[in-house]
Amino acid sequence: MRRLASLLVVTAVSTGMAVPLAAPAHAATTLKFARFYADQPGSDTPYTTTRLNREYIQVKNVTRKTISLSGYLIHDRKNYHVYRFPTTFRLGAGKTVTVHTGKGRNTSANLYWGMRSMVWNNTLDTAYLMKGRTKVATCTYKQTATQKRLKTGYKNC
To answer: Structural domains in the chain?
Structure first.
């Protein structure tokens, strides 16, 4: 059987036929950023829980399977702020979780970073979703003149 497979590949290559190759398992996208709200409406200060929690990033599971986010983290462009997902957190198939900057009670739909000041820069910042040292997703927010005027500081990734 192995000899036959080798013969077919050699024949296909020598005649110029395309040989389909399986994509590596890690090439499949499983998670992505959904909405990145870097510049929440109104003033950033004073830092209240309500204001801090209006700043957030959403992570969406784009598969049909629940994914454990143990070992995943989010960090900002300069790697100053790092959020580590709870080791027991699982994101359901097709579900989105919102990671708020401030404090609150974690649920299956909302997680809280617990910061006392804003994480994301209002004019330009990039969010990175990492699994260990592997980059899973990125999203860059760059404020436009219209966003500044209308105070709509988010990007759909």
So the answer is: 28-156 (2.60.40.1260)
